[in-house]
Amino acid sequence: MAISTQQVFRIVFSSKRIKPAYLTQHKGNNHTFLINYPLNIKDENKMAYKVWSEIDPCMESVHKKEGVSENTEAEKLTVIRCAENMIIGSYILTKEKNNFTIRELHQAVIDDARKYFEKRNYFDTDQIPYITTQSEDVVKFLYDCADFGKRLATAHHRI
User: Fold this and answer.
1) Is 124 part of any domain?
2) Range of the structural domain that residue 72 is part of
3) Are the beta carbons of 146 and 109 closer than 8 angstroms?
4) Is 31 inside any structural domain?
């Protein structure tokens, strides 16, 4: 059974396992971004750093290749929030055992994200426009996000 990113979002935002979003600062960069955490993830600062360390190099690569200026924080935040929701959605869907395998979720995230990129649609609750680049680096970034979500879900599923 195929699942959509909208289903992931519905579960993410309706789940009582999720804390309200709050701001966290990554040391070494002047970026502040929203992130949601499952209630039972230990050491949230370490988790925030892990998410950022996975995302930041991909975005820097896109910026350099596309010649994007540094004044693209709204676009960067949108991608980061998209990735965070993929990761948390992966965790919840796996933990809640909604008859979806991790592989199905992984593929659904990739497929849905690619569609949203191609349509240049909106992808988050604040209706910030998704970044418009069609760079292969962005597609790779989405694969990496989905893979990170899959690995996180697998790790927590074993506990």
Assistant:
1) yes
2) 5-17+54-157
3) yes
4) no
- Domain assignment present for 39: no
Q: Tell me the pLDDT tens digit for each residue of 17-27.
A: 333 333 233 33
DSSP labels for 66-129? HT--S--HHHHHHHHHHHHHHHHHHHHHHHTT-S--HHHHHHHHHHHHHHHHHHT-B-STT-PB
pLDDT per residue over 45-92, tens digit each?
444 444 444 444 444 444 444 444 443 444 444 455 555 555 555 554
Domain assignment present for 111: yes
Phi, psi of 50 (to 5 degrees): -65, -45
Query: Rounded to whole angstroms, how far apart are CA atoms 133 and 113?
Result: 13
Q: How is residue 48 written in tokens?
A: 């925030």
Token couple for 105: 């979720």
The number of C-alpha atoms within 13 Å of 77 and in the hemisphere containing its C-beta is: 19
User: Pick from 8, 1, 32: which is nearest to 116 by CA?
Assistant: 8
